[in-house]
Amino acid sequence: MIRSFLALVPLFATCCASSLAAEPAAPPSLRTQLEELSAGFADKAPPAMREAFAQGIADVRALGLEASAKQVGDRAPDGVLLNAVEVPVEFSSLWADGPVVVSFYRGGWCPYCNLQLRALQASLESIEGAGAKLVAITPEQPQKAQETASKNSLAFQVLSDKDNQLAKALGIAFTLPEAIRPIYRERIGLAAYNGNDDDELPLAATFIIDRTGEIRWVYLESDYKQRAEPADIVAAVEAL
Fold first, then answer.
1. How many CA atoms lie within 13 A of 45 on its CB side?
2. Alpha helix locations (H) across 124-205?
3. Residue 88: which H helix or E strand, with range?
4. 66 phi-psi bin (left φ>0, alpha ψ -120 to 50, beta other)
5. Residue 128 and residue 94 in contact, taking contact as beta carbons nearer than 8 Å
6. pTM value?
7. Under CATH, which architecture does the 29-238 domain have?
8. Would you kindly state where each structural domain of the chain is located, as residue ranges?
9. Residue 120 and residue 156 in contact, taking contact as beta carbons nearer than 8 Å
10. pLDDT per position as a tens digit, 28-79
């Protein structure tokens, strides 16, 4: 019997090796995907456009919003958002039943935002399993936000922040610098997405707010090419 068992060992090992080889590779991190997208833009975009965007990032960073915005330990401000059918939603209602992850994105026209939203969707089960709700907030008009949610097959709520009112209360809204304003007006058509001519956007920011309304974790970044890593968000929720 021992001899028969030993004869099966190589076959068992081969089967295990085949199973391991067939194991799907882990998807690349959001950071890696964003870096690849940024590198592709750098390869294709005209030098003048690359310089304009680089200057725009520098100008936004110079505003100091990363330091002046709401931080860990601050109370989250209340505000009114709009859902896909333009029904008002109180911001404070989002954390009434427990912690909420609030991720701001600029618009469905932004390829970096779409990567971020898809990565959050891929991590939705982990975020909810850790005990939090996930909500995305955007200055896009409700119809545009719904189109973005549908395009990215999002199963979490996407809410519209009309005229960036909540973003302003959180201290993350800014007016587009002169260096890039024409690009957003003429090439992107930002006014049609946001429903105004304010030329304003929010930082790529993520907040975790607990059931008392206290901000417990923050990601603030002036460079729109960088976003909160979903694995870091999950870890922060688990640590609450």
1. 15
2. 124-129, 142-151, 165-170, 181-182, 190-194
3. strand 88-90
4. alpha
5. no
6. 0.87
7. 3-Layer(aba) Sandwich (3.40)
8. 29-238
9. yes
10. 899 999 999 999 988 888 999 999 999 999 999 999 999 999 999 999 999 9
